[in-house]
Write a structure and sequence with these properties.
Blueprint lengths: L2 H13 L4 H11 L2 H6 L3 E2 L4 E9 L20 E8 L10 E10 L2 E9 L5 H12 L4 E4 L6 H11 L8 E4 H9 L8 H9 L12 H11 L5 H26 L10 H10 L4 H11 L3 H13 L3 H15 L2 H14 L3 H14 L5 H19 L1
Helix pairs in contact: 7-9, 10-11, 10-12, 11-12, 12-13, 13-14, 14-15, 15-16
The chain binds a DNA duplex through strand 3, helix 5 and helix 6.
Length: 376
DNA sequence: ACCCGCGTATAGCCGGGTAG
DNA sequence: CTACCCGGCTATACGCGGGT
């Protein structure tokens, strides 16, 4: 489906009626006003429809706002999600539904703006721009790559500039925290695996463009409510996910599937002392990767006395090759005790694990050198 | 069909240490 | 002194995967 051509045809269709009153009649006949009103929308323009839901929620992070840049607060967050005519980033794509979420006290306000037909896009965008004014930080799922560009593009194509100042994209947080433990990091998988949300009767994303086209072409409004619902659920999940990530970062929650190694490393990189605690907890929970990262952190900090017991534990309980190598390096180069270095390195060969050729040759080289040192 | 941020792997550089 | 080697850090290249 070439949506560019399609959009052009829609424009011509309305343009064909020259008389003002005639045009209006035609529009009113084509836009299913009563259907949209029945869905809780109100008319906000010739083609623009708006509805709002207030959802009572608890547990909004009021103080611990680790994700929010600058001096903004969570009152200035706007959660947003678009339903579009396709995935491709080309100019022919546009969006016909935007969901916005705002936090207000203990409530979540979800606003949805629907474009009843393409010729109304300019007024639709102007209306959305007004609604977006209160939001300073945009929260999305993959919005940095998808939604924000489409949004900007549509404003641009209509001769209006719009820039999303600050953005928080939760996709990257989901990857960081659950890439190892979930089959994938689609919003759906995160909902099911972490948030405990299982959508019933959800519209698969790929069906959405066709549903909208079929509505435009044949006036088929039947499946539209499910699209509105899908968009609403996306906003709700976005908010829940945002709260969960804030909770994890402030140490209030730590779902069992969370990758403590990745989180700990990220925190350490951000010079955050809680990174050490996260890695400690991960290692205590049996994650060797967390122990390894913690030991390397101690090594970088020159805290050998803290690193050494970790390496020994990693060798004894997890048969960690990297820990063996670290112990061998330590004794060969730092303590100048090649016999101790050899003692540890030899364990790797005793284990008789399958090794990649590269790693194997590296280990052999190290052993050769130690043998030379020992015999001289 | 598209974009883009992120994680991972690899190469290269530098400083320190050592053998000859 | 020189030539080399090792380890650690940084820069760059690459590929993945999510949105409708």
């Amino acid at each position: 489906m070439n949506s560019d051509l399609f959009a052009l045809k829609r424009r011509l269709k309305y343009a064909a009626f020259t008389g003002k009153s005639q045009e209006k009649k035609r529009i009113e006949a084509k836009v299913p006003v009563s259907f949209l009103l029945s869905q809780g929308f109100e008319k906000a323009g010739e083609f623009t429809f708006f509805r709002r839901k207030v959802i009572e929620e608890h547990g909004f992070p009021q103080s611990a706002a680790r994700l929010i840049p600058g001096t903004y607060t969570c009152r200035e967050l706007v959660f947003f999600d678009l339903e579009t005519t396709g995935l491709s980033g080309g100019a022919g794509n546009y969006f016909f539904l935007i969901g916005l979420g705002f936090l207000e006290g203990s409530s979540l306000i979800v606003e949805q703006v629907f474009l009843a037909d393409y010729p109304g896009e300019a007024e639709y965008l102007d209306y959305i721009r007004e609604r977006l004014k209160r939001g300073k930080v945009f929260v999305s799922y993959n919005g940095k790559s998808f939604d924000s560009h489409l949004l900007r593009m549509r404003f641009q194509m209509n001769g209006r500039e719009y820039k999303l100042a600050e953005q928080i994209d939760l996709l990257y947080w989901a990857r960081r925290l659950w890439k190892k433990t979930l089959p994938d990091c689609s919003l759906k998988s995160v909902e099911a695996g972490v948030l405990g949300i299982n959508r019933e009767d959800d519209v698969p994303g790929y069906e959405i463009p066709d549903i909208y086209f079929s509505y435009l072409r044949a006036g088929d409004t039947g499946p539209l409510p499910r699209v509105f619902e899908h968009n609403l659920q996306d906003i709700l999940s976005l908010v829940k996910l945002y709260i969960l990530v804030e909770d994890i970062l402030s140490g209030h929650q730590f779902p069992p599937v969370t990758d403590s190694r990745a989180l700990g490393c990220w925190l350490l990189k951000e010079c955050d002392a809680t990174g050490v605690n996260v890695l400690k907890r991960g290692f205590a929970g049996g994650d060797a990767g967390s122990g390894r990262e913690l030991s390397l952190y101690y090594k970088r900090a020159g805290l050998w006395l803290l690193a050494l017991p970790l390496w020994r534990e990693l060798v004894e309980n997890y048969r960690s090759i990297s820990a063996v190598v670290e112990l061998a390096k330590y004794y060969e180069h730092r303590e100048k005790e090649p016999e101790k270095a050899y003692y540890w390195l030899d364990k790797v060969f005793a284990w008789d694990l399958p090794l990649s050729p590269l790693l194997r040759s590296e280990l052999l080289k190290r052993r050769e050198r130690l043998i030379r040192k020992l015999s001289s």
